[in-house]
């Protein structure tokens, strides 16, 4: 049969979803490691600045992960855009009155939440990786600790980060569980555990990441005498 | 028997033919009894429209068995496929469901480009037939009837396969899906055979063919909202979608 011969998994919607699941897992894994790395701020300036130096002194690790991550982001975003187009053309005339029963705030937020996250990632990189002066005038390359402190002392920057983390939470809340569903490893026996695990990890990332700007703003992370 | 009757304000999608511009039209209907089924209520409305010689004419809607097993009926009521009652086709939905509460109903056809509206509330669901056809044949012995229990099948597998086979192909899953995806339907049809020994010979070619046809028909993709499962009158589980994903992945890595 022609359909069998010409069937290309990666061209199918199911295949594109699988690409999203795999690339999403890569990004999730990276986000988790990134959070652990960032939490070292509580151990003081020496510790986190050494960690930053270690990463920059190990280009294979730094650039290796950056390249893998960039590919994951591109694969995720392009699959999402392609699939979104399919969904749009699948229903060109919508309902006058619509209602949902099972969809959650998280599942409904995946598309616009994804756009918010891309915008946030660009802002976050400009501010704390590339050191674009417009986003953080006091940026000093290599002084991770003070860069973070200077940024989060400003309440509205902290607010932007907290809002972004809520979107990340929603994205992971639905996305991490969806991975198991999309890759076909879920089953009724495991479904509840996968859902619980996804929610747990999403909450862990939310709390871990939000704690840093909040701690800086509240003065829990010391800055007096360290950062001018 | 509820002795009292009540009045409804109905907003119904009216469309003359395929491709024509449709619109929501408002009708007032008195004397609705809680004992009527949803389709009987539409019958009463049509009787009124005919006897009053209403310019719109009667509302066209699909129906056949009216006992919830044929899969012909199905409309979206207030944004919910088959109306607000879970596990129920709209022919089995009784008007008492609406007796208390909002007396205003919005009735629309399934909305999906793969299901074009033919007239009013009737849509063309032959896309589903083509997905089934794409599945192809199942290898069976011909000749004399096989022994009843010649092929041993585990109880769990048999029951799970029967759960999938309960699909009546009404299309509510597509109607309810925010992406107009036909994954629940297709996965149920794939799984009912994939779970049984008789379905094994063509298992992996079948899933590829059916998914390819599903995509060709212009249905959307699955984003795991589980809206389909929530409206399915046969309460078919999204676990069959997981199974379809798994089988398709396996089919793609193995040699035919």
Account of the protein in words:
The complex is a heterodimer of chains A (228) and B (256). Chain A is mainly α. Chain A has one domain: 3 helical TM bundles of succinate and fumarate reductases (Up-down Bundle), CATH 1.20.1300. Chain A contains eight helices and no strands. The mean pLDDT of chain A is 94. Chain B is an alpha+beta fold and 256 residues long. Chain B folds into two domains: 104 residues, Roll (Ubiquitin-like (UB roll)), CATH 3.10.20; 129 residues, Fumarate Reductase Iron-sulfur Protein, Chain B, domain 2 (Orthogonal Bundle), CATH 1.10.1060.10. Chain B has a five-stranded mixed sheet. Chain B has a two-stranded antiparallel sheet with strand order 6-7. In chain B, strand 1 and strand 2 form a beta hairpin. The model of chain B has no long low-confidence stretch (mean pLDDT 95). The chains are: A mainly alpha (228), B alpha+beta (256). At the A-B interface, helix 1, helix 2, helix 4, helix 5 and helix 7 of A face helix 6, helix 7 and helix 8 of B.
Series of secondary-structure elements of chain A, N-terminal to C-terminal: HHHHHHHH
Query: How far is the N terminus from the C terminus of chain A?
Result: 72 Å
Shape of chain B: elongated
How would you spell out the order of helices and strands of chain B? EEHEEEEEHHHHHHH
Helix content of chain A: over 70%
CATH C-level name of chain A: Mainly Alpha
Query: What's the name of the CATH homologous superfamily of the largest domain in chain B?
Result: Alpha-helical ferredoxin
Percent of sequence in beta strands of chain A: under 5%
Keywords:
heterodimer; A: 228 residues; mainly alpha; 3 helical TM bundles of succinate and fumarate reductases; 8 helices; elongated; B: 256 residues; alpha+beta; Ubiquitin-like (UB roll); Fumarate Reductase Iron-sulfur Protein, Chain B, domain 2; 2 domains; five-stranded mixed beta sheet; two-stranded antiparallel ribbon; 7 strands
